[in-house]
Known about the structure:
The chain is an alpha+beta fold and about 160 residues long. The protein has 4 helices and 7 strands; from the N terminus they run H-H-E-E-E-E-H-E-E-E-H.
Amino acid sequence: MNAAKSQDANPPVASHEPEVNREAQAAEKNVRLVAVALILRGHEVLICQRRPDQPMALKWEFPGGKMEPGESAEQALARELDEELGIHAKIGSRITRTRHTYRSGSSVDLQFFAVHEFAGEITNRIFNDLRWCDLADLPTYDFLAADRNLVRELAAGKLL
């Protein structure tokens, strides 16, 4: 009987941990992990325009994409740049990381990396348009909401 009383008075802590972990995991499942390149050429950066048939049609963005299970951000970015632009990039340092939640409730966790070197010719494989843009001119383009703070900081001469 004493054993029953001590169990009631001190329930095992472990019994509550799985619920907390499941909630955290469920919240993280709604977040897309994305690696993004700031491909730099002097004071210019490569920007890409989404196609008319894509969600957020014709918005401008930086190249990159979703991380696959088991990939590091750098591995995902190298793969995405090959798929999207046909280049083999040397992924540089991480410039910044941000999380954005869209009105729909979906969230993206974006990691931005500098790319100063790559092999191959840039080939537009998936975008409506590609352009080299002076950093100061970035705010004149209609970027995805998730990129807008970064665009302002880059144009102001911050981060790079």
